[in-house]
Amino acid sequence: MFDLIVRGGTLPDGRVADIGIEGDRIKAVEDLSGAEAREVIEAEGDLVSPPFVDPHFHLDATLSYGLPRINASGTLLEGIGLWGELKQIVTQDEMVERALSYCDWAVSQGLLAIRSHVDTCDDRLLGVEAMLEVRERVRDYIDLQLVAFPQDGFYRDPTARENTIRALDMGVDVVGGIPHFERTMSDGAASVRELCEMAADRGLMVDLHCDETDDPMSRHIESLAFEAQRLGLQGRVTGSHLTSMHSMDNYYVSKLLPLMAEAGVAAVPNPLINITLQGRHDTFPKRRGLTRVKEMQAHGITVGWGQDCVLDPWYSLGTADMLDVAFMGLHVAQMTSPEEMARCFDMVTHQNAQILGLEGYGIAPGKRASLVVLDAASPIEALRLRPARLAVISNGRLVSRMPREDAALSLPGRASTVRRRHDPGR
Question: With a threshold of 0.85, does the pTM exceed it?
Fold first, then answer.
């Protein structure tokens, strides 16, 4: 007898199968018509996906929108300044409570793995202490990776280097940085070198905020690719944002992309935030604020969509729904063919899981029993609808349920209910 069977769901690759779960692992993905289980979830006609994964977030700042004031200009730099003000008045307990509330939102949306940058430019390291506590409290149902992130610059802030090392010694998982925020380009390149060496010495991954600017001469991604190859960090390095690439000379990019592919550097654009914060100094034409997603994918570079912010100094919206992120991404990147839209769904599931190096991710026997049942027939329909998560299973345990979102109509001669699902193939 299985502990749980998810019956008759449609997998992202189009297969229809029952999923049998024992303990925290998937035991079978096949026709289980005669099998019994302690609990059965009926998923016939519904999409069953592995959980959503967010490879770039700021959990220490989330749900703080309006504190101590609102970002009036809407710019990245005012957001950084505002965060500096908030750090002086926030308490560790407040950070923990907001982060836990966001994790509740995440579970309800089937988001069960998050990589969160945590600011290390604070001698008290309140954010680090808070996020380590949150990581421990959610560990049974969310994979939370923490990145030691010197928000004000690894060299620019006088104690950031020491505090970043302290944070890693405390158990933070990933080495972070922000080279374009250093005082000079040379300082930025030097920070990339030292941070990558730090990760290599400790056997850790690297994830740098890299070239989050409209300046086409911000080219720290080139340094990051060089250091990844020099130090043998292929497959362990991520460049997040990379927005300067939207303004770079095409000839230079034709050299850069093969270097990134050769070095095994992944990329995480954050479309909701990039399109909001970038291009603020433009009149018209106004830049789209997104890096070269399709071009990178054509070179075999792993690219995932990140959420970055929800209700914080940089972004006034957000719901913890990675389908919102992918939906915006496919529009801004103009990824509207069926194959490209399906790839956008894969970017917030399998590609992001690869960037985080998640163990046991996917739907197959032996994988971790973490699944999402969506009120949609296919990945593309899920992107169109951003539908209800009918059931969310984490490590074999049902952790969230949500009703369908059918509307009741009162129209003469028409059906009494309506659903926005529309799959001509069915």
Answer: yes
